[in-house]
Task: structure prediction
Amino acid sequence: MSAPDKNMKQITFTAIDAAIDLVDHVDDDGLEDLCEKHATAQPELIDYILSAAIEYENPDLEGLLIYYFCLIMESYSHAECSLKKIEVQDIESFEQEFLSILETYFEDDNLDLLEEYTGQADLVHFMLVEISTPDEDGTTLDDETGVQLFISMMALISVIAKTND
Result:
């Protein structure tokens, strides 16, 4: 397993909270502009992430993927991380190792493995909390959608880490 470069800036809960404050408090037009900004900067990455909704045959997943894509990308912005543009070959080159790590994580329930692999412990913890606790209005994700969202966001965080190490 190849861990990301320790020089990659850590995305802290402070940056995540700042991103949440922004994403959750913009109007629909503002959210659309924010999504467009990140999708334009990382077109291959958003396409890859959105393909999960099709692959999993879960239309409920698409809106969640867009929301968390924007939130995570905005977390990197708030942490003042300059990210390289991710290309198809970056995604293809990380997938096999990622799937192996993911399989081991689910077999052993080894959170340290994901934290080390992504190099982003706070983002990993944030996503675990997001999929396992009710929203402010009491809404919870069904287990299947939660796992699919978690896998997709771990892929997002991992490919960013691998491309920017």
